[in-house]
TrEMBL record:
Source organism, top-level taxon: Eukaryota
Gene Ontology annotations of biological process type: glucose metabolic process; glycolytic process; intracellular glucose homeostasis; mannose metabolic process
GO molecular function, one term: glucokinase activity
Similarity field: Belongs to the hexokinase family.
Catalytic activity from the UniProt record: D-fructose + ATP = D-fructose 6-phosphate + ADP + H(+); a D-hexose + ATP = a D-hexose 6-phosphate + ADP + H(+)
Keywords: ATP-binding, Glycolysis, Kinase, Nucleotide-binding, Transferase
The protein, known as: Phosphotransferase
Lineage: Eukaryota, Fungi, Dikarya, Basidiomycota, Agaricomycotina
Pathway linked to the protein: Carbohydrate degradation; glycolysis; D-glyceraldehyde 3-phosphate and glycerone phosphate from D-glucose: step 1/4; Carbohydrate metabolism; hexose metabolism
SUPFAM superfamilies in the record: Actin-like ATPase domain
Enzyme class: transferase
UniProt xrefs under InterPro entries: ATPase_NBD, Hexokinase, Hexokinase_BS, Hexokinase_C, Hexokinase_N
GO cellular component: cytosol; mitochondrion
Source species: Collybiopsis luxurians FD-317 M1
Record-annotated Hexokinase C-terminal domain positions: 169-407
């Protein structure tokens, strides 16, 4: 539960040009967002591919690369027909930096990296202020920007979705990982009491809820397959909630069940099943395809097992695989509903209802996932659960980052950021 120092909701009137730089798991993305007020915006963006070497080289080199891409983007978008800069002398552009890795923040433009996730391992970065490292790179390349905010993509999703529709009170991401953000009353945030922030203010909280029930495993019911997924992961004990829900793990849960039944002599009798023995070889996308197979013979499932794993399947086996995929997908969605319900209950949103901005490959692409989340909310709250509605979220790491940069600039200009 990380305080973000993003204070309050956007007014919807934010306007102007703002840059956003999003350091993701696969790509680096630079966006120019023109906020037009009334919840409207336009965006121009360019993506730059990150190499595995860059992810594991010196951290300062990684931020130098970010700065180089940012410079290229500005040179491309802020020059006239003769190649001259259209920026006024001394003018700097406000920049929101989306850095979706767990950070401890003491203010909006500061972020100390707790640990790398998503396959990153850049050296000499953990425990350091990544905002300061990036500022050093910006200065090195003499780029005309002022980095006003460092944010998590989930926080950005919350703010961007609220900018477009003010009824949005919660943001969730269900993709390779899972996370949520919501707006908390400052008076109820114990860990920042000593900062003396106005008790009447509100601040966005990055839940990092994928880590719920980690290590102790006291609250979430786990199967033996879940325990195996955890114990064989690169971080045993950590991210307990995420390992039951996110797209990174659902295919692996199904693979473990299949392998157990192969060992018991129930499946694929007399066939060579070595291709199924590699961890994470069964992708969550396969579960989506299996659930959405419209044919009586389940031809999609035939294709998956023959093409990727070189095994033949009977109709009974295919029906079983689809039923198993539905169980795993349904459990993930219903557990996700529990997370949303916890925030709704804490903040008292049930009676008046609220929108939940949702993003991520699982939410957007997995058949029936959103419907099952809603089914779970109704089972938890009864008919009032219908008041909580998820919808496709706005681009949090681009648009949200820019809006937060705009909100921060307004607060700074008004002298509201003396300490934080």
């Amino acid at each position: 539960m990380i305080p973000t120092f993003v204070f309050g909701w956007p007014t919807g009137k934010e306007s102007g040009d703002f840059l956003a730089l999003d350091l993701g798991g696969t790509n680096l993305r630079v966006c120019l967002v023109t906020l037009q007020g009334e919840g409207k915006f336009e965006m121009t963006q360019t993506k730059y591919r990150l190499t595995e070497e860059q992810k594991h080289d010196e951290g300062q080199k990684l931020f130098d690369f970010c700065a180089e891409c940012l410079k290229t983007f500005i040179d491309t978008n802020y020059t006239d027909g003769e190649g001259k800069s259209t920026l006024k002398p001394g003018e700097t552009l406000p920049l929101g930096f989306t850095f979706s890795y767990p950070c401890v923040q003491e203010r909006i433009d500061h972020g100390e990296l707790i640990r790398w996730t998503k396959g990153f391992g850049a050296l000499n970065t953990e425990g350091r202020d990544v905002a300061e490292m990036f500022r050093n790179s910006i200065a090195k390349y003499e780029i005309p920007v002022t980095m006003t905010a460092i944010i998590n993509d989930t926080t950005g999703t919350l703010i961007a979705s609220s900018y477009v529709n003010p009824k949005t009170k919660i943001a969730v991401i269900f993709g390779t990982g899972c996370n949520a953000a919501y707006m908390e009353n400052v008076k109820d945030i114990e860990k920042i009491k000593s900062l003396g922030i106005d008790d009447k203010a509100q601040m966005a909280i990055n839940c990092e809820w994928g880590a719920f029930d980690s290590f102790e495993h006291e609250h979430l019911p786990r199967t033996k397959y879940d325990v195996t997924v955890d114990e064989t992961s690169n971080k045993p004990g950590e991210q307990a909630f995420e390992k039951l829900i996110s797209g990174r793990y659902l295919g692996e849960i199904l693979r473990l069940v299949i392998c157990e039944l192969i060992d018991e002599g129930v499946l694929f009798l007399g066939q060579d099943t070595y291709k199924l023995e590699t961890p994470y070889v069964f992708e969550t996308a396969f579960l989506s395809l299996m659930e959405s197979d419209p044919t009586d013979e389940l031809l999609m499932i035939i294709g998956i097992f023959t093409h990727f794993f070189a095994v033949e399947t009977t109709l009974a086996e295919r029906q079983f695989f689809r039923a198993l995929a539905m169980l795993i997908g349904r459990r993930a969605a219903r557990l996700s509903a529990c997370g949303i319900a916890a925030i709704v209950s804490k903040m008292g949103y049930l009676d008046e209802g609220c929108l939940v901005g949702a993003d991520g490959s699982l939410y957007n692409k997995y058949p029936g996932f959103a419907e099952r989340v809603h089914e779970g909310l109704i089972d938890i709250f009864g008919d009032k659960g219908r008041n909580i509605v998820t919808h496709h979220a706005e681009d949090g790491s681009g648009v949200g980052s820019a809006i937060i940069a705009a909100m921060t600039k307004v607060r700074r200009d008004a002298g509201l950021y003396p300490n934080v």
